[in-house]
Amino acid sequence: MRRVDLHAYPGTAEWIASQGPYVEALGRYWRKQWTPKTEADVVADFRAHGIEAMLVAFDIESVTGAPACTNEYVAGLRDRHPGTFIGAWGTVDPLLGEHAVSEAQRAVDEYGVLGFHFHPIMGRYSVDEPKLAPLFEVINALGVPVMIDVGTTGMGAGMPGGSGTVIRHAHPQAIDALAAAFPDLTVIAAHPGWPWVEEMTAVALHKGNVYWELSGWAPKHFPPALKTDIRGRLQDKIMFGTDYPSLPLDRVLREWDELGFSEQVMRKVFHENAERVLGLTAAAVPATREQQ
C-alpha cells in the first residue's frame, strides 16, 4: 500500500539549528537525544519504510534569532531525491507583514512549494488574526493549500512559561475562522489537536475545505472517539503524517496497523485522501517487500 507522509521534517543539522533554544527541551519531551541525521540517512530511512514524504520548512527566526530551515533548503532536498520526497511545504513568518507576502509568492514561483506550513504557538500568532488576512489572501490567490498545527506542542514544553508561548494560538477555532473567511482555501490541520480533539473534529466535519493529518502522536494514544471517527464519519478527511524524526517510522506504521482499520480506510488515510485533496500523481517509490 502506498504511504504518503504529509508532515516530515528533514531531521538534518539545518533543521535542528532552526529550533534555536528549544532543542534541549525537545529532547527531554521526546525522551531521546535530539541529534542531526545526514541527508543520506534520512533518505535511507524513508526508503526502508516505503514512505513518500512531504518535507516541512521551519522559520521562527524573528522570535528566536535562530536561522530558518528555508524554503530553498527543503525544495533542494525534494529535487535531489524526487522518489523519496514528493513535495515541500514552504514557510513564511506572518509577523513580517509585506515581506511575508512577497516571500510566499517567491516560494511558489522559484521553489515550487506545494503550500505553506504554519506553527502558530512557536510563531506567536493565531492564523485568524485580522492583520494576517493579507497574507492568506495572497496564498489563496496562489491556489495552494496551508497546513496549520493545532493543539499543544513539544516545543517549549517544560520551559518556564513555555518560553513565552501561548498554546491557545493553536486552537481549532482559529482554523474554523480561517476556513470560513477563505472557503476556497484548502486547510489541513496538523496533529491530533490535544487537548481540543473534539473541537477539531467538529471543525473538520463542519468545514468542507478543512482536512486533518494526525502526525506527532503515537497512534495507540489516539482518543477512543477519534479512532471511531477515523473509520466512520472522518474517513474521507484524515491523512497520514509522522512528524519525523520525532517518532520512529517503524513504530508509527506498526501502531497504525494495530488500530485494526479496514483496508479501505487505511488506503484513504495513507494515500487516497492526500491524492484527492492535493492532486498527487501515482506512487513514485517501488513497493518494499513488506508492501507487496
Walkthrough of the structure:
The chain has helices at residues 13-17, 23-30, 39-48, 61-64, 71-80, 98-111, 120-123, 133-142, 172-181, 197-206, 224-231, 249-258, 263-278; strands at 3-8, 51-56, 85-90, 115-118, 146-149, 187-190, 210-213, 238-239. The protein has 292 residues and is of the alpha/beta class. It has one domain: Alpha-Beta Barrel (TIM Barrel), CATH 3.20.20. An eight-stranded parallel beta sheet has the order 1-2-3-4-5-6-7-8. β5 (146-149), α9 (172-181) and β6 form a beta-alpha-beta unit. It is globular, with a radius of gyration of 18 Å. The model is unreliable at 284-292 (pLDDT under 50).
List keywords for this structure.
13 helices; 8-stranded parallel β-sheet; 292 residues; 41% helix; TIM Barrel; alpha/beta
In short:
By secondary structure, the protein is of the alpha/beta class.
Q: How many strand segments?
A: 8
Tell me roughly what share of residues is in helical segments. Answer: 40-55%
Class by SSE composition:
alpha/beta
N to C succession of SSEs: EHHHEHHEHEHHEHEHEHEHH
Indicate the low-confidence ranges by residue numbers. 284-292
Chart the SSEs and their pairings.
Blueprint: E1 3-8, H1 13-17, H2 23-30, H3 39-48, E2 51-56, H4 61-64, H5 71-80, E3 85-90, H6 98-111, E4 115-118, H7 120-123, H8 133-142, E5 146-149, H9 172-181, E6 187-190, H10 197-206, E7 210-213, H11 224-231, E8 238-239, H12 249-258, H13 263-278
Parallel strand pairs: 1-2, 2-3, 3-4, 4-5, 5-6, 6-7, 7-8
